[in-house]
Amino acid sequence: xxxxxxxxxxxxxxxxxxxxxxxxxxxxxxxxxxxxxxxxxxxxxxxxxxxxxxxxxxxxxxxxxxxxxxxxxxxxxxxxxxxxxxxxxxxxxxxxxxxxxxxxxxxxxxxxxxxxxxxxxxxxxxxxxxxxxxxxxx
Length: 138
Ligand code: UDP
Ligand code: MG
Known about the structure:
Number of helices: 7
CATH topology: Alpha-Beta Plaits
CATH architecture: 2-Layer Sandwich
Low-confidence stretches: none
Bound molecules: uridine-5'-diphosphate, magnesium ion
Largest sheet: 4 strands, antiparallel
């Protein structure tokens, strides 16, 4: 079984989409192994997205992610990383497949409702960023 980290971003929490997004997770063979509502400071958001520090959108992205509450989750299942990325859809909702979360809920390229780790290496950084070992169910 693989684990991945999902975030429900501020634009989705603000529009009361937590339940709808968790429903997609639960009905597509992924188990919720940890979940919490958190708000990040700008500094914490910069830490989370440090891989993007050199990108032109880094300032706006970290401003946005720290603009309101987010939900952080650990998802577990077979091929959880890919499965969750597939359910999310393409980064830009204009390119996302019908039926994906970003196609159905995203506002735009930045406010695209959800995050998912893109590799086991990303999971190794992102999971302990949000959760202690005790907070992830066995
Ligand atoms: N993003 C943005 N402008 C861009 C590319 C990305 O605002 O040109 C934001 C968007 O919220 C995206 C996040 O930065 O989800 C991280 O980008 P990444 O390329 O890692 O996309 P993801 O892995 O989230 O699909
Ligand atoms: Mg990414």
